[in-house]
Amino acid sequence: MRYSALAILLVVVATAPASAQEVAVSTVEELVSAVRDGAKGMTIKIGPGTYKLAAPLEPKAGMQLVGAGMDKTTITHTDAWRPSTDKLPQGEMRPEKADSRGYLVRLKSKATGITITNLALVGPNMHGAIFGNGNRQLHLHHLRIEDVLYCGIRGYFLSESRIQDCEFIGAGGKWKRGGKPGIDGGISGGAIFVTWMNDSEIAHNRFSFGPPGRRPGKSGGHFGVKGRGGRNIHI
User: Fold this and answer.
1) Does residue 82 surpass a pLDDT of 70?
2) Residue 20: its pLDDT value, please?
3) Among 11, 15, 172, 191, which residue has the least CB neighbours within 10 Å?
4) What pTM was estimated for this model as a whole?
5) Ramachandran category for residue 68: left, alpha or beta (phi over 0 → left; psi -120 to 50 → alpha)
6) 8 in helix, strand or coil?
7) Cβ-proximal residues to 96 (8 Å cutoff; 6+ apart), any chain
8) Helices then strands (H, E): number in the chain?
């Protein structure tokens, strides 16, 4: 009887699903490969250094991107990666009107349980830092988002999500239709710009416009938090 119980236990252990995998990366090639080829639920620990992307990272459901600290790990872009600004300002209500490839990180659509933390995202050529559509249980915390063209975090239909303890520096701007900086008018983005966010929290974040002269004229003007519709949001 004892032998049979042990055999059953061994079978249960052998067939139980393995825990989510964890990988450490220290080069941009390793980072891109880990996000592209890694399984859902993987934790990717990103070592200190500067990682220059040539295309957006696209985390899958359950993935965690964990840097060594917002003063130690920086994700930015190569000089050659310059998305067109023709779609700025972006669709206020419809995600398909936005150019999601103009972001350093483009979350898989409707992917659940993604976490990004402990790093800086800097994108002077980018529309923004993080783009999400239909994501649930997204957790963005302890991030520094700096020097982007339109909005730092752009989310459509996010739910049960948290944006906490982040620092935004010059993370937005004002644009006219057709991709012209809003020197004498235009539409302002937001360091955080969310459309129809539900049952979520935006808390303990810091916002600043960045150094004087960052954008010509009044084109650097943007909101800290900009929203278009939503329900049960604690700010």
Assistant:
1) yes
2) 67
3) 15
4) 0.91
5) alpha
6) helix
7) none
8) 2, 18
